[in-house]
Amino acid sequence: MSEKIGSKKFSMSKAFIYLILAVGSFLSIFPLYWMFVMATNHNSAINNVPPAFIPGEALVENFTNVINTIDFFGAIWNSLIVSTIATIGVLFLCSLAGFAFAIFNFKGKNILFVFILVTMMIPPQLGLIPQYIIITKLDWLNDLKAIIVPGLIDAFGIFWMRQYISSNVPKELVEAAKIDGCSNFRVYWNIAIPVIIPAFATLAIIRFMYIWNDFLWPLVVLRDQSSFTIQVALRGLIDNYVRDNGMILSGTFWATVPLIIVFILLNRLFISSLTEGAVKS
After folding, report:
1. Which is nearest to 83 in space by CA: 216, 225, 245, 259?
2. Which residue, 90, 200, 239, 278, shows the most beta carbons closer than 10 Å to its own?
């Protein structure tokens, strides 16, 4: 009898957990679904009370209006270039810095690491003016380099890699590799890199999404429409007199699709990095 009661309690708790997960999943997915529904309807359906909750027939028409209003594919290409190069740079440079902080002992290491953490508390808007002055003196205005180069290093990326390497790369293995004659870079490349692939996936998703969605800095440094990233280009869909919500949400939805694809591709490694060490014997 006690076994039946225990199994019943277990099943009830399990059902409650599944219910919470289902509700959380619905709340997370619904905004994306709602954006897709609005992207497939005309303004008249969007402004109805209650509004439409099922996809309409204006998906192609709304997207056609988008590409006729802005250089959508050109802006997508610019965002892909900027986000991909900056993300690769962050993965390489931050993992190198994280490896140094995790493995090596050098004078002032802890103080320097604290300074890096302090920079995470400073709002990026405070550095907008000095960064703009530097970009102007380098003559990088209206150039994608003005977005790529400042995004090649990230304080959170250094912190994340340092923590992951500290807990997953044994120092004994590093010392054994050095005894065998491996250089510091070869230890990093041949020993650390294979271990921290899941951390790479997590940082890649976070950084790619941040750069892709960045609006303020590209708006400041990009002037010509041919160099606009997608977030800046989407601003051109807003008219001061007539607001076509179906067209606006269509552009927004299709601009979100590359982020969804990146997350799907890196999803398994992302979950692996977050659950690393959660279950140990």
Report:
1. 259
2. 90
